[in-house]
Structure prediction request, 310 residues.
Amino acid sequence: MEFVRGIHNLLPRHRGCALTVGNYDGVHLGHQAMIEVLKARAAALGVPAVVLAFEPSSKEFLDPVNAPPRLTRWREKFVSLAANGVDRFVSLHFDERVRDMAPDDFVQHLLIDALGARHIVVGPDFRYGSHAAGTYDSLRAMGRRHGIDVEQIQGIVCDGARVSSTRVREELAQADYDGAARLLGRRYHMMGRVAHGKKLGRELGFPTANLPLKRRKSPVWGVLAVRVHGIEGRALPAVASLGTRPTVNGVEPLLEVHVFDFAGDLYGLPIEVEFVQKLRDEEKFPTLDAMVAQMQVDAAQARAALARSC
Prediction:
């Protein structure tokens, strides 16, 4: 999959595509259905299937404090879109200029002039332009004026309701990881490159692979049973803690993963952590000995949970 970052990197050869626009946070079953339609339209026209997303998201730009936690940071989104067969991923910076674009200018400057869209696929909640004033109907009307077909996909229903990124976040917030997996078509996971830490876990008998979150908020918190991909070519059972580590006066959120029965060097290795079950909330212990005793309980519970899970 080709990646283009920034409108200044769009070249004449990038004009002409079947296009979809959205956050694509999580790349859940609804997104996947849209991508399948997009690819079919692109194949019929003989053009690339292109996803356009903004960085940061409009909600993060307009209200960073109250913006919802990201399901996928940029790298995770890139990998998921590529796995679903998208030809090109275009990421444009969301700033004051984009925020203030009138709906018609948004379509003219970005979708037509910059990308040369010939077919546009959008979801049921698609809005665009200043104050989100642009709607599917206004986009379709402008498309007719420019000879562009515009198609709205109503989405996928799962467990009696439409699949959405909001629903995935709700399932994760309630620690229903099986429910989130049904909406995503896979278990929820995070990716990252193992970074050096203070090596306290090693001293306590629980060496950990540390992954910086690289996101403002996490949709998942606590102590968790997980599987780790990217080591030895197979999924390895593990126990993880995602939080600020209050017992050792931590500040920045961190994902710490203890891989069972593994003693290799993971520093610098890109891994994927798949969340299977939440065991408990993070808590502050009075002593390190008390924390280690609980970690031993957590490890036993994680092994049991993973043994039960497919």
